[in-house]
Amino acid sequence: MMKISKDTFTFLKELIANNDRDWFNTHKNRYEQAKQNALDFTEELLVGIKKIDPSIPEDLQAKKCVLRIYRDVRFSKNKAPYKSNIGISISSEGRGGTLPGYYIHIEPGKSFVAGGYWMPEAHHLKAIRQEIDYNTSDFLDIIEAKAFKAYFGGLSTEDQLKNAPKDYPKDHPYIHILKLKSFICSRSFTDEEMAGDNMINTVLEGMKLIYPLNKFIKEAIVA
């Protein structure tokens, strides 16, 4: 079973300490090895996730999911040319897109598995809130399921409004959910866990739990 190599973490640790083009070009072969490791991991992951989520295209390949390590520094105060992580984004649109999906973040000391819809556009956010309001019990069945809470701890509450969103009273019984600006869940993993022999299955376990959330959101915004 494929796993994230310890050498990949070693490369990323050294890249964090030497984030400049000269160092990167000197160690380009190590980057290519780390990238290939992520591609191989993703290919095996895709086999499993396509069985979980039928919206993932059968012809989706790892190269369409692994994100570039090169940073866009044009509008950033941080001019470091390279990311300190390798990201894997999977959805029915490949990487990115405007639909809910799954994400694996590989970074020394900061790795995590996540899913859902991060910062949806205004019309999507409105539709998601409306669907939650109309079908609250169905949504709660997903996010309050014992297995979901055991794995993720619940939905992230990091991105939320201070006040009730327009069209919803502040005393709405689920205003704490309707205030959310993102509908995501995540779980952190140590470097040792990420490099473990069973990590593919651990990630897929999380994706099985994310799928109902993504399906609920997608039905809200595509209907």
The major β-sheet equals: 4 strands, antiparallel
H and E string: HHHEEEHHHHEHH
- Percentage of residues in strands: 5-15%
Secondary structural class:
alpha+beta
- Structural domain tally: 1
Distance between the termini: 38 Å
Please give the CATH class: Alpha Beta
Q: What would you say the CATH architecture is?
A: 2-Layer Sandwich
- Order of strands in the sheet with most strands: 1-2-3-4
**CATH topology-level name:** BirA Bifunctional Protein, domain 2
Give me the Rg, rounded: 19 Å
Task: Pick out the low-confidence regions.
Answer: none
Total number of strands: 4
Report the principal-axis shape.
globular
| Mean pLDDT metric | 94
Helix run count: 9
Helical residues, percent: 40-55%
Organism: Pedobacter puniceum
Protein name: TIGR02453 family protein
InterPro entries: CHP02453, UCP028451
Pfam family, one: DUF2461
Describe this structure in words.
- This protein is of the alpha+beta class.
- It has one domain (6-222): BirA Bifunctional Protein, domain 2.
- It has helices at 6-17, 21-26, 28-52, 122-134, 136-143, 146-152, 175-178, 191-194, 199-222, and strands spanning 86-90, 101-106, 111-117, 183-189.
- Strands 1-2-3-4 form a four-stranded antiparallel β-sheet.
- It is globular and about 60 Å long.
- The termini are far apart.
- The mean pLDDT is 94.
Question: Which features does this protein show?
Answer:
alpha+beta, 9 helices, single chain, 11% strand, four-stranded antiparallel sheet, 46% helix, 223 residues, BirA Bifunctional Protein, domain 2
